[in-house]
Amino acid sequence: MNIVGDEQGKGLVAKADKDTVRSMFHLMVGKPDSNHQMFTRPVCIRPEDIYELNERVQEKLRAHHQESLVASAALVFDDKTTTEFGGWAEFESYNWSRSKVTKEVRLKWQFLLNVQGYELPQQHTLTVKLCASAKPLEVLQAMFSKNPEESDEAEVKFAPVFCRVDFINSVVSEELMAVVDKWNAALPVPESRSGFHDLLDRHKRKIAMLVDYSTPVIFPFASVAYLKSMFDDKDYSASLTIGTSIEVMTWLVFSLMAFTVIVKISNLLARRAFSSIKEHGAYSVFQLTSGDRNRLDVIRRSNKKVFSKFVFSALVSLAFNISAGIFVALNFS
């Protein structure tokens, strides 16, 4: 009897050990499911915004009674140096008065959560990647990369905010994703991405087409008006003289030459207007270090120059159109 009892006890222990081993095995080497999302909305990110995100994440996790939590961060700069922080307290005490320009911020929250069906708490990870604008080299890498994984990585750099959750509990994953979504929606918009710029950006092709075609369309009317003014004091019923024929031919040749030049000038102005609108939206995602703020000043000056080019192109085109319109009106009145 005692022997049977011992064997039954060993069986129970063995069963308990198997459940524990399964949980430990999944904890150590199991591959969790993943959700990820890219946020392409133009945003400005300051140190206090990152601190607020940490508070929101921790507040959400406290509601799920996580067993353990480790929050870490890393800063990647344009000079190819990286500063890693083992804990959040170290990150918050970082001295932001540095001349370095921030290229990327990586935030990670690793925590253990009790999940139904597992004896041991299971690891979950929230990763948030904050990126500056892609550089031309990175754009080319995205265009010509044949490796899907490399292509995905390059595409990530086009989004200021990227979020990924590795999870066992899908409810927690969705809630954390919603936290990041709401945080991103509350971030300030760059001043160069104001409502006026959005209006120009949405209609930049229409504006370019207007600049490109308006003057060439009006010019023939102005040319005909000029021809009419040449013969206002002449009798149209009279026979066409050699002198008159030469005048008409001269008008035709110069009109064609002028039309060709105007088409080229209009096309040049249209391309300048289009590129100016496209370039004017440049902005700096990060306003963290002193280097970031200096870079923002450079971008502001550049945007002013680019906008001046757009205004110049638009005014030149407008001046051509108004002059041609007045000339036509005076000669046909």
What features would you describe in this structure?
Keywords: Membrane, Transmembrane, Transmembrane helix. The chain crosses the membrane at residues 207-228, 248-270, 310-330. With 333 residues, this protein is an alpha+beta fold. It folds into two domains: 32-188, no CATH class; 196-332, no CATH class. It has helices at residues 2-29, 47-62, 88-92, 136-144, 148-156, 170-186, 195-202, 204-230, 242-280, 290-332, and strands at residues 33-39, 68-77, 82-85, 102-113, 122-131, 161-167. A six-stranded antiparallel beta sheet has the order 1-6-5-4-2-3, sandwiched between helices. Helix 4 packs antiparallel against helix 5. It is elongated, with a radius of gyration of 34 Å.
How does the SSE layout of this entry go?
Layout: H1 2-29, E1 33-39, H2 47-62, E2 68-77, E3 82-85, H3 88-92, E4 102-113, E5 122-131, H4 136-144, H5 148-156, E6 161-167, H6 170-186, H7 195-202, H8 204-230, H9 242-280, H10 290-332
Antiparallel strand pairs: 1-6, 2-3, 2-4, 4-5, 5-6
Strands in their spatial order, largest beta sheet: 1-6-5-4-2-3
Reading the helices and strands in chain order gives: HEHEEHEEHHEHHHHH
Report the helical percentage: 55-70%
Strand tally = 6
Helix/strand structural class: alpha+beta
Overall tally of structural domains: 2
Largest sheet: 6 strands, antiparallel
The fraction of residues in strands falls at: 15-25%
Low-pLDDT windows of residues: 1-5, 7-16, 136-157
Radius of gyration (Å): 34 Å
Keywords: Membrane, Transmembrane, Transmembrane helix
Transmembrane segments: 207-228, 248-270, 310-330
